[in-house]
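Bench notes, bay 3.
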Amino acid sequence: MLSIDNLTVEFGVKPLFRNANFVINDRDRIALVGKNGAGKSTMLKIICGQQQPTSGSVSVPNDTTIGYLPQVMVLQDDTTVREEARKAFAGNLQLKERIDRMQNEIAERTDYDSESYMALVEKFTREHERYMMLGAEGYEAEIERTLVGLGFQRTDFERPTSEFSGGWRMRIELAKILLQRPDVLLLDEPTNHLDIESIQWLENFLSTSAKAVVMVSHDRAFINNVTNRTLEISCGNVIDYKVKYNEYVVLRKERREQQIRAYENQQKEIADIKAFIERFRYQATKAVQVQQRIKQLEKIVPIEIDEVDTSALRLKFPPAERSGDYPVICDEVRKDYGSHTVFDRVNLTIKRGEKVAFVGKNGEGKSTLVKCIMGEIPFTGNLKVGHNIQIGYFAQNQAQLLDEELTVFQTIDNVAKGEIRLKIRDILGAFMFGGEASDKKVKVLSGGERSRLAMIKLLLEPVNLLILDEPTNHLDMNSKDVLKEAIKAFTGTVIVVSHDREFLDGLVTKVYEFGGGKVKEHLGGIYDFLYTKEKEQCPPLTPGPPSVPPQGGKGEDYKVSSECGLQKVTIHSSPLVGGVRGGSYEARKEIQRKISKYERIVADCEKEISRLEARQKELDQILLDPAHASDMKLVTEYTELSDQIAKVMEQWEEQASVLEEWKSKIN
């Protein structure tokens, strides 16, 4: 579809990347990765034609369309949300106007036998057919589906875009690009302003509806769920890995180990050559050999090693005084803005040492409750902050509180205590302030850089209650790993407002869901919460039984829903069992039918597990053969089989439990 040939970009002496060659094919889902400053955003701008390379070319077929979502863009504020989204169909609307004009002309003319009239009818027919193929009037429904998927309420559609924050207006731009259905989608950090539900909707859209996608994202779960290919910009080169991000990480580690071995061998070779030259430089009998060694040394191309992964760096919060047993208690807390109730009757208790997440759509009150806890805004009800609480708070505006006259290094050096001061440079490097960046003054930093600096400062202050409001928005994957490990090792209490599932996974043990003016508690981690939500939103595992029981002892066919992530399984009948204690004939028949239904489901789950495990054993034998050990297709299939088995096993356990409950009603 698109061909990138010998692309080179130079800023200063060292090229950003050189001689890059790759092809973007239809249905490719590409993650563009690399450290900050490697040139990911520059690559996207070059592909879409907004920036010119130093050399090389991007070949785009004439009929190929490209949609590009940058991180920052100039937005218009003179229309409503719906009208702005309609701009995606500007071509359709212009075509509709031409068709209407031709239709009016046909109705007014009476020269039915003239050549011009016949040509007009033919053109009208052709254009009308094209209009119908483009979706005709159906684009309004598509606009609504896309805007709702990205988190807008239908009541928002007629509101002026000027009433929305920058993040929401970015969603409108994303909606416009998705509605255009370009052949190639270029997305630069598309999840920065989305909540979990909108991210999941976008994942599904990109996986099923988009043609080709190239994206830059620091949301590991998002790119793993969408992409099937990874392009890495490293050491000025573009390396193509035909696997998703998680598998790329493994292959990259192996590649780096090979680079290190090759680098060490090359250094030994260089040292030996230099030693020979120094030893025999002034011996006339060895002059020819010395010149040969000098030429050999000049021809050696130095081996570069990929940038060091700083995620292994470990940070630890300084010790703080022990807090009370219950750092936060909310009792019937309510917050109103005028006539709008953000939330009502919030009752929650957070115990010392708990790590909890606040999740939900944007605007449902997550940050508002955090501000209530901090005492920044008034509310009604009782909210108690426990005894001896020292709060460390990271808010969206936290970066504005930094001293602009200090350098990055001075800002951190002023709060660092003890041995941690010896690691300040390492810590700054882990959060993308390596080298000369640590000597910049705060006043010249961008908003994202200030946020990262405020996060480092917070990590070095002694607190026992940590409140983080969207802490990962401006962090790359390595920085998020450093932060996550520091929080996991933190012995105090943590409240995290975040939409980053990978960051929350393994970090929190309780989730508070904000929505509809209520706050609901969910025990377990983020994926436990998402699984529960998926079950609530998915169709039931089996279709609801008819009101009249099946006749003649025959049962229906049931299927395990593939929409909830499971393999489709056809269910067959099995005999009814036993009688029941008391009750009417209809009640007994209903219980018997329930037992029969769940027996069928359990039996078919067992068959499916057996089938998947049999295939997995086959792959075990195949992968033992060295010839197939590195076959990524087989390795991927093996991994997917493990996931499927786990899902079906979980389903089997649930349905077996339900079956036992119904059987307990039998004599």
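Next record in the batch:
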Amino acid sequence: MKKTDPSVEARNPLTGLDYPDPDVIRVDDTYYMVSTTMYFMPGCEILRSYDLANWEHAAYVYDRLDGTPGQTLADGENIYGKGMWAATLRHHGGRFYIVFVANDTRKTYLYTAERIEGPWKKSEIEGFYHDGSLLFDDDGRIYLAYGNRDVRLVQLRDDLSGPMPGGLSRVLVSDGDNPILGYEGTHFYKINGIYYLFFIHSLRDEWKRVEACFASDSLEGEFRGGDILNDDMGYCNQGVAQGGVVDTPEGKWYAVLFQDRGAVGRIPVLVPLVWKDGFPVPGTDGRVPESFPVSSTRPEHEYEPLVRSDDFRVPELSELPAEEAARRYGCFGLRSAWQFNHEPEPTLVDWKKERGELWLQTGQLSGSVVQARNTLTQRMRYPRCAAEVTVDASRLKEGDCAGLCALQGCYGFVGIRKRRGKMYLVMVSREPEDGSESAETEREWAAVPTEESRVRLRLEADFTEMKDEARFFYENAGRWEPIGIPHRLRFRLDHFTGCRFGLFVYAAEEIGGAAGFLEFRYDF
């Protein structure tokens, strides 16, 4: 029976998945959210919802960005910790607009489309606008508010190609003397004739994210305000901040912010918001509620999962409208839950749909899993999750390694390695030396000889209360055998994203080898 009751319970944090820096809008009865995807491709993922509590994939804005050596993992380069982030999403005059910067190219990108599914047209805005937020004013003028510590305003040309000559340009708010993190993550609105700036920043005496808001009745006037939300939801002193605000068709208001949850990443949080004397007041008595009712505009809708198992078989696309097929299989023809680590090389991907096998071939030498081309990833889920996959190692070449990894700077993986003509089940991790955040070494903790060409591997992750631990297993006679050591996962600025499951193969000695992946199972 389809659900007809519009009442839905929202439970925080929302997705349990790494969707940081959210911006959210409503178009008629549909909410859309964009978040940072950095170096994963396809990129700039947009989610949709009809109740703000449940979200599903709507579209990717681009398959590739600029194809630089760093974006393609070529010549030993990468863009970890860089790439696309903190997009602004707007709908104006019947068109969707997305603006974001890429910190590797130091460019500001503008994508426009008539429909959220695309096609999206790419262009650039002259200049570099960190954490920019777009505003279409009532008088037809267009502005970007952007920056860190000193938050600035720039008026744009009518075609958004760059700053308007002689247009308004000024510092709106400054937090320059904050010793930790000054105002950034700007979200800029005009609501009932008042201009509002929402920011994230840190308390000055300790690292803790808090949300601030400043308001003015004029872009030439003084913006006044301060902190409006300082709450950790009882979770490890991790504050809730940075994101967009949105209204419902009934006139209720909410903020979609995020909270750091350790190695799993930064997870969206829904916060009720009311207006008192023209100023936003989020939460209940200054706190973010763990759960509360919201209303659905389409109570009969069944949401597609954001992460999922995959048998890698032929999807029944003929039974779906073309638009729905493109939405569900937006990762270069694979299910949209997948993203490649950096821009992939499709000629090295051989998907044998009828047999349910996805083969990844090596095309360059790589010193470690983080430089492996075509690693296929899904987000890990809070508070616990696990993944299993069968790896066909029959086509590995000498020095090749393939398997299932916890992808981050201090990665860990269970895999199969060909060494001196023999196959070994291995558990490998990269650990900081002496607690350092920079000096790292890779270590093989276990190597178990095997005669099998197909092996089933498992990775379990526990993120409760920032335990952030991964454990690794292989199947032996129908039982899971642990291999290696429990590995501590870490959220760090070197990758700046939540930990992900990754299916990988890399070549240490010669190219041309390949690994097959079958029956991926996602448990949570």
